[in-house]
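Weekly modeling sync, notes
Attendees: S.R. (lead), two postdocs, one rotation student

Agenda item 3: backlog of single-chain predictions. S.R. asked that every request posted to the team notebook include the full sequence so nobody has to chase files. The rotation student volunteered to paste the first one in as an example of the format we agreed on. Action items at the bottom.

Example entry:
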Amino acid sequence: MRNGNSRMSLVITEDESMTSVFGWMATDAEQSRRMMEVVDQFRDSTTIDDLGLGGIRDAFSDTLFPGTSTLHTRIRYALFVPWLMQLASDRNATVPEMSGAFARSEFQLTQSLLNGGESAGVIGRVAGADLKRRASAVYWGMLSTWGVIDRGFTTREYFERCILRREQKRVLPRADDPEAAMELTPTGLHERLPTAPPGLLNAADFTLRPEDEQFLREAIIHNAPDSLLAHLVENQPTSWTDFETAPDSFASPEIVADLPEALQGLVSRANRYAIVVQGASLVYNLILAQRTERYIDDETSYEEHYVNQIREWFDETRREGTPTLEEQNLIWLMVTATGRALSRSTIAFVREWIASVNAAGTADQLIGSADVIQRIVSREREKKGPRARLAPGNRRALDAWSGAAGTGRNNFRWNYVAQHLQDLYDARTAD
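Predicted structure, as returned to the notebook:
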């Protein structure tokens, strides 16, 4: 699902100006998060995008689950970050001093979570003092999307406003009514942000308090009202009692059964798109298997393996159906609505692939089509240029194929979202 030219181009472009990349790390947490997420994709075999369809996948993810990211671990970081900002501002200090205190507190939070008994999901647990992926950068997109902070806001602006408010309190005349609130510049943080728990930097954990859950639930529902995320925040499936019983997919029957009509259409469209495009990746890997003539073991070749997988996938596609032309048009509109570029060649590739799948009588007929094979080969070359495994003379890249490249099905961040939802559900149960 992710290794296409659009993503690689981004990495190459950013690498060519590495100074500005690290500048983002310091001053623009959202840009930093996006860059880190791009790099992170290459570590996940299920998100490799050799055929350049990552933009569509990400548009579905953002539409279904706004504010989420594959970099996220636990939802309480959406509160930890603003709490640390508040702690760093609670002093008679300059902006650089507050910024330094905030940066140090992010490292302290790592140890605090370890002291509190947490391990999995702790940002910085392994990196320690060498941590590059700070929680503030990772979660900034979530904070702004969910309204925890103002959109386009930076930590520096927050500390600047803290100094401004400090000065306003000093010079503004006091009202006769002691209950009257002073008209101060907004901090940029949500005014109903829960108070940080005592001892946050001594021993902390990921367990949400009832007031934390209520704040996050209301923030999601208010700022992403028509999303699957907002629906699930409000409506816990009855069969989902703990993380072990969480649905395997965003389109599991226990989720779909309770959806309003508009969301049912979106989820159905996303699921059938995910199923059908997985076949293109499977065929791509079949071509690689045929060209490398590699074996999984002494008896089974990768070619046999992928032929069998494609046959199973084809049967599922026949059962579930593929997106209609009208639904495909809705997909293109969704992609552009999320601010992503969508090339004519990408639209043409997806349309032609779906048409080929619909026209094929059997899986063997599909993979036996010279036109289908050539379309896959041409698409990889278009997106990756001379780096394409199937480019003429690029034997080195072909031989570097591991046996599976992007064969996983798009699940649109569901595994990460399910953990967030579980944390919210647990807090509600405890209440």
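Discussion: group reviewed the output briefly. Residues 1-28, 41-46 have pLDDT under 50 and may be disordered.
Action items: rotation student to repeat for the remaining queue; S.R. to check formatting next week.
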